From TrEMBL:
It holds the Pfam family 7tm_1. The gene is CMKLR2. It is found in: Membrane. Its main location: membrane. This is Chemerin chemokine-like receptor 2. GO terms for cellular component: nucleoplasm; plasma membrane. It comes from Meleagris gallopavo. One of its GO terms (molecular function) is complement receptor activity.
Length: 211
């Protein structure tokens, strides 16, 4: 197989007739995914909104409240974008929202993941310093330093998730089904089209490149 064979960026799968079609397995995955993400959306939006309201506007500002406020903001932004992914799965991995929302949805998912990990790490580190090094904590554990660290965390998470804004792309199959996927093929980003000849090929490809 030569390099030119990969240039068309097409994917073909031979499914023997005696083997079960992956569509049935994928349908079960659809239902499980839809259930979890729907519950996360229904509980996450009001739950995080309440936390943001009390910690951001009602309670006195402290180092601890700032850490948890930022964590709640990261989760709140993520759950706001969940309906896009829920719709994507419910429509059989058809993405009707366009390329830029495809990029933004993936970027928000990565931003939330890394920001949450970083904030949870610093929350644990903050508790350790407060208990084990009280003198250091009293001197440097201030709201100003917490705000600075929070900005650094948000910037770091955005930088790490930034490649999604470049590599995420949409592709339309012959049956007018559009997927949102990681496109590492330069020629395809410049205007190529991913070729699929059946719904099974689209589902397999979408399932393997999804997030």
């Amino acid at each position: 197989m030569t390099f030119e064979d990969f240039e068309n960026y097409s994917y073909f799968y031979d499914l023997p007739e005696e083997e079960e079609s992956p569509q049935s397995t994928l349908s079960i995955a659809h239902m499980i995914s839809l259930s979890f993400y729907s519950v996360a959306f229904l509980l996450g939006v009001p739950g995080n909104a309440i936390v943001i309201w009390f910690m951001g506007f009602k309670w006195d500002k402290s180092v601890s409240t700032l850490w948890f406020l930022n964590l709640a903001i990261a989760d709140f932004i993520f759950v706001l974008f969940l309906p896009l992914y829920i719709t994507y799965v419910a429509m059989g991995f058809h993405w009707p929202f366009g390329k830029w929302l495809c990029k933004m949805n993936s970027f928000i998912a990565l931003l939330n993941m890394f920001a949450s990990v970083f904030f949870l790490t610093f929350i644990s580190l903050d508790r350790y310093i407060r208990l084990v090094h009280p003198v250091f904590s009293y001197k440097y554990r201030t709201i100003k330093n917490t705000l600075i660290l929070s900005m650094i965390i948000w910037m770091s998470a955005a930088i790490i998730g930034g490649p999604a804004l470049y590599f995420r792309d949409t592709a339309t199959a012959l049956n007018n089904v559009t997927i949102c996927y990681n496109n590492f093929h330069v020629a395809d980003r410049l205007g190529g089209v991913v070729g699929f000849t059946s719904a099974n090929e689209m589902c397999i490809f979408a399932y393997t490149v999804l997030y």
